[in-house]
Every structure is written in C-alpha cells, then in structure tokens.
Amino acid sequence: MPSGIRVTARGKEARDAGNKKTSLSTDEKLLLDALRTRDIAHFLRKKCSTKEGFTEKRHVEYFKGVRAAKCLMSNYKEISRKKHAVYILNKLLEENFYHSAEKIKLSNGSKILRPILKKQFTVDDSLYIWTFEVGKWKQYMLGVGIILGFILFVLQPLWPPFMKEGAVYLFYATLGLILLLLSLCVLRLILFVAIFLLSGARVYFWLYPNLVVEEQFWASFVPLYSLEWRKSSAPKVVDEYSE
Hints:
- The chain is α+β, with helices and mostly antiparallel strands.
- The protein has two domains: 128 residues, Winged helix-like DNA-binding domain superfamily/Winged helix DNA-binding domain (Arc Repressor Mutant, subunit A, Orthogonal Bundle); 93 residues, no CATH class.
- The strands form two sheets. Strands 1-2-5-3-4 form a five-stranded antiparallel sheet.
- Strand 3 and strand 4 form a beta hairpin.
C-alpha cells in the first residue's frame, strides 16, 4: 500500500510539473489577450495552408493543427512559443472560427470530413474545418458581373457597331488562346514521350511543368522546363500531402 501511494504521488508531481511548464504567466496572457482573434483568424485564413474537402452536406476548407501553429509562430512576435500558439488557437476554437473534424471512409471508397466534438486545440495532424469565411465580396462581385454580362448579351441587337466588332475580336482572341494552350499540352506530351523513350526511360523532361497544375495563370508558365534523371522507369512516388 505505501508503495502504491508513492507512485500516485510521483504521478501527481509529474502532472503538476507538466502543467507549470505549459501554463502561461499573467504577463503572457495579457500580451496574447491584446491580440484581436478576428484579425488572427483573417490572417490564418489567408496564409495557413488549407485543403478542400466535403462533409455530408457541403464543400469545406480545412487545415492541420500543426500547420496553423507553425504559421502563427513564424509570423507573430507575440506568439513565439508553442504554448502561446495553443492558447490563441484554443480561443479561436472557442469562438467558433473553426471546428474539429475527422476523415471517414464511405462504403464507395471516397473520404469525407465529419465534424467531431473537441474542446481543446492540439498541435498535431488533427483536422479543423473553417467556418470563418473571407472574401465574400469577391463572390458577390462575380455574381453581379455574371448577371450584368447576361443582360448585356441579351441586349446584343441594340449594341452599337463598335461593340459588335469588338465582341468578334474578343471571341477570336479567346479562341486563339484556347488553341494555343491545347497545342502546348500536346507539344509537351510529345516531347516527354520522345525523350523518355530515347533515354531508355531514364530522363523525365517536361516543358512548362506547372501548365496543368492548379496555379495562378502566370505561375503556370514558370519554370520553362524541368529535367530529372532517374535510375529506374518505375520510381517510388511519395505524396507529401498523404494523410
């Protein structure tokens, strides 16, 4: 019995020491409380790496807890330690800027996100779904632009001659751009296959490697090419975003 009591006491001492190590001082709390949670949420919404997914009802954006913590610690001088980040991220969780989630696999093999009840933010691979939306005005402007464009198209018979002529030039310019992009896709594929076969499946050459990647328009044309030498024709592919 005495030995059991000693073990319990040691366990309690270890927990107390851990709590002291991760607890914040009064000055630290005052400094962190002075930060506006909405401003931090807005910053994370734009700068923290996110992914897109689906719940049972809607399309969502989500992120990993460890990435949010690293983003704060590398950009806020007030949030220089892990416990500072956890304190702030817990406040955002309590104020419903995001909520916890987990990935589940459906019977058809697809994966969806399912919200779960979790009151504490953890700096690991735990997933969090954003409920805080930014950039709504862009969606509104896009909607207004589509409506105005439709109305303008319906009124085409009333257009003055210069507008009709401009529409023709715009159509041919758009068609030319589409044909140019398609030609580039075909050309890069032909070059890849030709060099791949001639090199004995050792050289991987891509013209405009980001052309078919989801990037901004101009970023799709940088760099001009990528060249990679491989020893085998069946290299091991590592997915850095696998979960």
